Amino acid sequence: MLQACGPHDARRHSVDDKEATKTLHVGDGEFTPVAPEVYEFDVSGLKVVQSWLAYRMKDPKGKKSSPLDEINLQKWPSEFNTELLELLWVLEETLAEYPAQAKLLAKIVKGKCFMADELPAVPDHMRKPPARKKQKSLFDSVENQEDE
User: Fold this and answer.
1) Interatomic CA distance for residues 148 and 143, integer angstroms
2) Per-residue pLDDT tens digits for 94-133
3) Which among 36, 16, 84, 35 is positioned nearest to 56, based on CA atoms?
């Protein structure tokens, strides 16, 4: 449920991990409920929500590779509310599936293993890379028009 997150100076973000509130604070706005597990969710060490937010703050984090990186939004657009909510929902559903994934993995690990020599042989024609079509250049159509 979105409580209040309108146009505001988005300089900071944090999550209130108290079981009672579970509130994600973004600038002056709040998203609730956001479980601490969702806020802390990471993929290979990258904290997904925190990274998403960091790139969208008034002073964004991340690599600066050109002067264009200095052009930043000064206010939080309403589209960010939708994007953040969708991200939170995806992560909630992902975490909800973890118990089923753990059971499936345990079942697979306990299952029968097979050896490589039990697999069928790969025919020679399947060992070759697929034939590639000649890719047209961006300028092919312009060159052909000039020749005509």
Assistant:
1) 9
2) 999 999 999 999 999 999 988 988 999 999 988 888 888 7
3) 84
**How many Cα neighbours within 13 Å face the side chain of 143?**
5
Task: Using CB atoms within 10 Å of the CB of residue 38, give its burial: 0 to 12 exposed, 13 to 18 middle, 19+ buried.
Answer: buried
Instruction: Give the pairing of strands 23-26 and 29-31.
Output: antiparallel
CA distances (Å), 8 to each of 48, 75, 109, in order? Answer: 22, 5, 50
Q: What is the pLDDT of residues 9-58, one digit of tens each?
A: 555 666 555 567 888 888 778 888 888 899 999 999 999 999 998 888 77
Model's pTM, two decimal places? Answer: 0.64
Distance CA 9, CA 76 (A): 7
CA distance 30 to 58: 17
